[in-house]
């Protein structure tokens, strides 16, 4: 798991996302976006997939339609609806999604734009649907340690803890905060 996380973080630092979504690389190969250190979503995530394959992980691309692009019909899927690709890794009998476009998204979480019913695993031996639902909730815990004085005033500490998508949203909101 440590190697998987390290590879994910390395790609996030090596190639920045240019905010364009795509299911295909922007040029004929991945050298150009890697050397320029910027690329579309497919460039970034296909570089991640290639790195994971070199590291001997069991990884496949998953193509999907983002929320903005609408649902991908399971009855009659079309290539026009596909506009995004992510990595899907099998490790120790667990499945993990990886997307290196977002700085604050950890291994196992997809950006909210990608959670859109199902995606299609791309593999030469089999193709299958995979649920894009996340087991990561939007959790925020607020802890109060307050005391009431004789004048009915409250004094104490309030602690806030975020996890899952609440933590992602918090990091995104305050990324430029000093």
| Radius of gyration computed on alpha carbons | 20 Å
Helical amount = 10-25%
The profile of the biggest β sheet is: 5 strands, antiparallel
Order of helices and strands: HEHEHEEEEEEEH
Task: Tell me the strand order in the biggest sheet.
Answer: 5-4-3-6-7
The rough form would be described as elongated
The helix tally amounts to 4
Determine the N-to-C terminus distance. Answer: 31 Å
The total of beta strands comes to 9
What would you note in describing this structure?
With 178 residues, this protein is of the alpha+beta class. It folds into 2 domains: 2-131, C8orf32 fold (Roll), CATH 3.10.620; 138-173, no CATH class. 24% of the residues lie in helices and 30% in strands. The protein is built from 4 helices and 9 strands; from the N terminus they run H-E-H-E-H-E-E-E-E-E-E-E-H. Helix 2 links the parallel strand 1 (16-17) and strand 2 (38-39). Helix 1 (2-14) runs antiparallel to helix 3. The model has no long low-confidence stretch (mean pLDDT 89).
Descriptive terms for the model:
178 residues, 4 helices, 24% helix, 30% strand, alpha+beta, C8orf32 fold, two-stranded parallel ribbon, 2 domains, 5-stranded antiparallel β-sheet
């Amino acid at each position: 798991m440590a190697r998987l996380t390290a590879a994910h973080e390395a790609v996030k630092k090596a190639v920045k996302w240019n905010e364009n979504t795509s299911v295909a690389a922007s040029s004929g190969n991945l050298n150009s976006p890697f050397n320029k250190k910027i690329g579309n979503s497919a460039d970034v995530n296909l570089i991640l997939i290639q790195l994971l394959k070199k590291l001997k992980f069991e990884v496949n691309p998953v193509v999907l339609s983002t929320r903005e692009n609408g649902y991908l019909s399971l009855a009659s899927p079309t290539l026009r609806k596909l506009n995004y690709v992510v990595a899907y890794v099998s490790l120790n009998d667990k499945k993990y999604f990886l997307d290196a476009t977002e700085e604050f998204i950890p291994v196992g979480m997809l950006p909210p734009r990608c959670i859109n019913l199902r995606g299609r695993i791309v593999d030469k031996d089999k193709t299958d649907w995979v649920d894009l639902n996340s087991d990561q909730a939007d959790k925020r815990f607020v802890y109060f340690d307050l005391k009431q004085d004789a004048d009915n005033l409250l004094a104490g500490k309030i602690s806030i803890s975020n996890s899952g998508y609440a933590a992602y949203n918090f990091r995104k909101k305050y990324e430029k905060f000093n």
